[in-house]
Write a structure and sequence with these properties.
Blueprint (H helix, E strand, L loop, with lengths): L1 H12 L16 H12 L15 H21 L3 H27 L1 E7 L5 E7 L7 H28 L2 H53 L1
Antiparallel strand pairs: 1-2
Helix pairs in contact: 3-4, 3-5, 4-5, 4-6, 5-6
């Protein structure tokens, strides 16, 4: 009995641990805050070749498809007549598709080379100044034009040195069609930039003229 009483007295005399104040945490917003901080600290890296971000994914595919098929059959059949036929067919398909469809959809440009009555040619360029160009569309388009033109140029130079006549003729066909589209769109893009620069200059002149007129009328 005395031991129980002595144990109770000791328990009463022991200092109690200081109680820490309770901190109330809200469960409403922590997830949102952590996501926001993560996205700000680690920016997402996106690729300019991601078709999921393209405005016209089918046009991006077709701007590569016919070029790729022509080059593929060239590599498979070599100097055979099938190589000659298939390269001409798919290069022609690609030339028409890029000139009339994919160029307009992907970069908002179109070119024409008109033969006049006197036998001279005239370049005409069309552009869509209000069209918002998608970065992925633009990257696919110019990569296809530059890449395949360069590939045909390498094959042409190689077969010209090795005096492989049949392959050299096929190379000239593939190179000429790819180069024509590349050159046409290069000139068309330059014409578009010049028009946009002139348009911005006209707008600036009009704004300055109106401002000066209002100041003079006061």
């Amino acid at each position: 009995m005395e031991e129980d009483l002595h144990f109770k007295i000791q328990m009463q005399e022991m200092p109690s641990a200081p109680t820490k104040p309770l901190i109330q945490t809200s469960t409403d917003e922590p997830t949102k805050l952590s996501v926001a901080s993560t996205s700000e600290s680690i920016p997402l890296q996106t690729s300019n070749y991601d078709l999921n971000r393209a405005s016209h994914p089918k046009a991006c595919i077709f701007t590569f498809l016919f070029k790729g098929l022509a080059l593929l059959f060239y590599l498979i059949f070599g100097e055979s007549i099938w190589s000659f036929i298939l390269v001409i067919i798919f290069s022609a398909f690609d030339f028409w598709t890029v000139k009339n469809i994919t160029g307009r959809l992907l970069v908002g440009l179109k070119w024409e080379n008109i033969i006049l009555e006197d036998g001279t040619s005239k370049w005409e360029f069309y552009s869509m100044p209000n069209k918002q160009i998608n970065t992925v569309d633009k990257t696919f388009f110019w990569t296809a034009q530059l890449g395949f033109t360069l590939a045909w140029a390498i094959f042409t130079f190689s077969n010209m040195i090795s005096f492989t006549l049949m392959k050299f003729v096929i190379d000239i066909i593939g190179l000429s069609l790819c180069w024509t589209n590349l050159f046409g769109y290069y000139k068309c893009n330059g014409d578009h930039k010049k028009k946009m620069k002139d348009l911005q200059g006209d707008i600036t002149n009009k704004v300055v003229t109106q401002f000066v007129g209002q100041m003079m009328s006061k």
